[in-house]
Amino acid sequence: MDMAVPTQTEQDVRVQLAACYRIFHMLGWTEMIYNHITMRVPGPEKHFLINPFGLHYSEVTASNLVKIDIDGNILQDTEHQINPAGFTLHSAIHGAIDDAHCVMHTHTTAGCAVASADCGLSPDNFYSAQLYDRVAYHEFEGITIRADEGPRVIRSIGNKPAVILRNHGLLTWGHTIPMAFSVMWTLQRACEIQVAGAALGKTRPIPEEVQRQCGVDAMQFNPRYGAGEDVFAALVRQLDRIDDSYRQ
What we know:
- By secondary structure, this protein is of the alpha+beta class.
- α5 links the parallel β5 and β6.
- It has one domain (about 10-245): 3-Layer(aba) Sandwich (L-fuculose-1-phosphate Aldolase), CATH 3.40.225.
- The chain has helices at about 10-25, 85-95, 110-115, 125-130, 150-155, 175-195, 210-215, 230-240; strands at about 35-40, 50, 65-70, 100-105, 135-140, 160-165, 170-175.
- Strands 3-2-1-4-7-6-5 form a seven-stranded mixed β-sheet, sandwiched between helices.
- Helices cover about 40% and strands about 10% of the residues.
- The radius of gyration is 18 Å and the shape is globular.
C-alpha cells in the first residue's frame, strides 16, 4: 500500500471531491449509500478517488475518500472497502478516455425515468437543447459488475460527456469536477422538465438549427466563462455555510 501523506495537490482534489459529494446530497441526488463520483489523482498513474462503500454522501470527507488504481487495488491505509459496481464502470471510463478525469453517476427519479423511456431525452426544452450533440446512450446489461462490459460502454460513449444509461440512470464525465458537474446539472434539469412536462401532453419542438446554436451558446460548458467553475464555487460557498466538515 501507498502509505505516503497525500501531496497538497492531491489534498486539494480530495477536498473538492468531498465537497461535490456533499453538494449532491444537498441537491437530493443521493441513492442511499450507492452511486459514485470519482476523480483522477494528479500524476502519471491512473489512480483515482472513490467514496468509501457503506457511507452516505453526507458522511464523505476529504480524508475518508479511498484512492485506488485502475485495477481496483486500494492504495492507502483505510478501514473502508469500495463498491465493485462503481469501480467497474468508472475505471473503464477513466482508463479509456483521456479527458475523463472526473466521472459522475446518479439514479435520480427524473434521470431514471428518462433513461427508461423509449424516446430517451427529448430535445424540446431549454436545457436539453443545450446538450445538442453531447448525449450518448448505452444499452442496459444488468448491474455493472462485469469487466467485459467496459469496452462496450466506451464504444457507446464515444466523445459525448453526457451519457444516458438505458433503464438505469445518468452519467457524465469531464476534465474537472466543475465541468462534469455542469454537464450533470444540465442533464438532470433537462430530465426533470421532460418528466414534469409529460403530464401536459404534446410539447413544442425546437428546430434543429436552434438546438445546435443552443449547444454552441451554452455558457456553462465554455472555458471562457469558467466551464462550470463559478457555479460550483457558489455551491461550495453555500455548503460551507451549512456544514464544512467535508474538509476534514
